[in-house]
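ABC transporter transmembrane domain-containing protein
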Amino acid sequence: MKVFLKLRWFFKERRREYFIGILMLTLVAILQLVPPKVIGYTIDEIGDGTLTASALTKWVGIIVASAILMYIMRYYWRQMIFGSSNYLAKNLREKLFRHFTKMSPSFYQKRRVGDLMAHATNDISAVQQTAGGGVLTLFDSITTGTFVILAMAITIDWRLTLIALIPMPFMALLTNYYGKLLHERFRHAQAAFSDLNDKTQESISGMKVIKTFGQQRDDIDDFTHLSNDVVDKNMRVAKIDSLFDPTISLVIGVSFFLSLGFGAKFITEGAMTIGDLIAFTTYLGLLVWPMLAIGMLFNIVERGSASYDRIEQLLNEPVEIMDKTGAYDVRPKGDLAFHVDSFTFPEDATPSLTNVHFDLKQGQTLGIVGKTGSGKTAILKLLLREFDGYKGNITYGDIAIDDYKMLALREAIGYVPQDHFLFSSTIYKNIAFTNPDAAQEKVEHAATLAHIHDDILGFTEGYATIVGERGVSLSGGQKQRISIARALMMEPELLILDDSLSAVDAKTEEAILHALKASRENATTIITSHRLSAIQHAHVIIVMHEGTVVEKGTHEELMDLRGRYYDMYELQQLEQQVEKGGM
Ligand SMILES: Nc1ncnc2c1ncn2[C@@H]1O[C@H](COP(=O)(O)OP(=O)(O)OP(=O)(O)O)[C@@H](O)[C@H]1O
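Structure:
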């Protein structure tokens, strides 16, 4: 039941609706008491031979009036209570989504997409049920149960009422025990659903790869295994679930049995009339629902509580990278100084960067080269403040990057990542992502600089062409260039191309670099690349090796060194010549 306390912030928020709903529920619980009593009176009047036509009309009139009132009130409490529970779902969904947008990459590294989606769907729906069905069953069982028992004790016979209630404590004990079992089993069932969700999401996203490698059979086996696990765990929940109804029916059955036996005895002793006993057993019938409601209540509440715990746990995960108090809300500008003595990724044992130092004047271009895994992207991740916790300092315009507001910093940096992501939307919207109201000419200008404008015009619907999820209908090079156009739309102070020209040919690469140089004279650029032609004209080039800078200088200076850069350059020249020769 603690979940109701945990949700009190929400009940407070919608107190008006819940107050009206619960008031209506209570009135219905009272009105329900009328018909059995009226039936009891009518039967006694028939027995005594005193029932007249006008008395019968009166009794029927009372029953009809209470039925109409109950109809109206039942309609309203449903609206108030179940309607409000939708707002809890909405609220939690938005909270989760906002939380997701604040989390840093390391969170997404730890958490799986399917699991996060399960939280945002299945778990929220279980909590929503608590605020709807849970509140209903709680108040309905309390009000109906109390009023029915009071009516039985006060208006009929308190001794018979006590006798009829003898089996109830057993039911309370048993349902409490079932509730505890259910909580644990439901938690496992939800976790299994998260795994299945994750598998489904990953398999659908990776279907092309799965098929290419002919792994469908294995994938189906994996899926079946997880699906069976979900069924097994839900069957374990269902086993407990199924115990509630028979237990309650058994307890009520024993109550009926005791009432009839002792009721008959009281009638023969003259302490009760037959009408009283009929009214009593009808009341006992009315107790079935509150008892069932208690069973349902445990069920709903235990599920809701397990799910709320899961959601809370997720929401309580700290946001790792936050704005400092009083952080500058200005777009960074100026020279860049990167001085990192060492940096280790959160889950790693050894540093990925050691002694990486470079300075870049505003308007200059930095080229970063190095073998795969040498730390090129790690440098960019620190610049983007995707990770904190490095030893050293990184300043932009003489201010440490963590002294800027995160949003201000990110707005100044146009980052084109290695793994491009295009939204399932039009090309126009993908390019104008950071500025959806941008004029067509601006979008076209960015596309022209990124050398993708002509390609777009070649598509049947031009800029209005929809690109599928992750842009499946485009070539790798086209996706790269759309991503570059998207970054250029921000008119960034710092443009970062993280191996973003790898899928275009040398001529297109040269054209793009030329266009960037001409249009971004005063803005800074960082390019990482495996192909040296992309960084050859940079003002500064650093050569990375095993997380550290091993060479630094201009192309000419590095060639004169005759070190790693020189070797790489010679090798690439040779490869080019072989390619040309081959052609
Ligand atoms: N998020 C992360 N968590 C833990 N380790 C990471 C993470 N990202 C990268 N690394 C590790 O840091 C090292 C440097 O990786 P980085 O991505 O910077 O290499 P890179 O030079 O950009 O390689 P590539 O040319 O293949 O992109 C690698 O050993 C990699 O395994």
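The two ends are 76 Å apart (CA to CA).
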